[in-house]
Design brief:
The protein is α/β, with parallel strands linked by helices. Helix content is 39%, strand content 14%. It is built from 8 helices and 5 strands; from the N terminus they run ααββααβαβααβα.
Length: 194
Amino acid sequence: MFHQPSHINFALPEWLESYSGTYQPSSSLDERMMFVIGAARRNVEECTGGPFAAGVFECGTGELVSLGVNLVFTQKSSILHAEMVAIALAQMKLCAYDLGGSGMPAHELVTSAEPCAMCFGAILWSGVRHLVTGALSEDARAIGFDEGPKPANWIEELESRGNRVITGVERDAACEVLQLYARSGGQIYNSRKG
């Protein structure tokens, strides 16, 4: 007889709520990025997931809407990249699948690394209007992560759809977290070639 789960659930790390409470709204991209990178570092140090974090913020006020971290191997789901978690949490919190919908303030996704192919697609459909990234895709690939077949002109693709994109914000700090993960023997998942 066929059986499958009737619910899709995932658990956030216990430390995430208290860490989120340390954020003070800021108009500074660098400050928002350092907050997100701090979550990525904590995720590595606590062994609760991969070396990535992402937050959804209101563009105008700098208010934090949601904070996600990579949960792929701890929750055993390949879709639980930090961006996907942050977007899903924001949509649940705001009761809206379209974060750019009518009556909504503009939202920004700040992520510790450039999006992979899956997260690139999610950004398009989520309704966020701005994307800010730290480490570059080549930095994630340097420690073994496979970013998938994302278009070479992915930034232009987002911008052609009305999204503002800024890359390389606090790149060195974001790369330090990737290197910490590599040095600590963190699991590199989906790194199959060919």
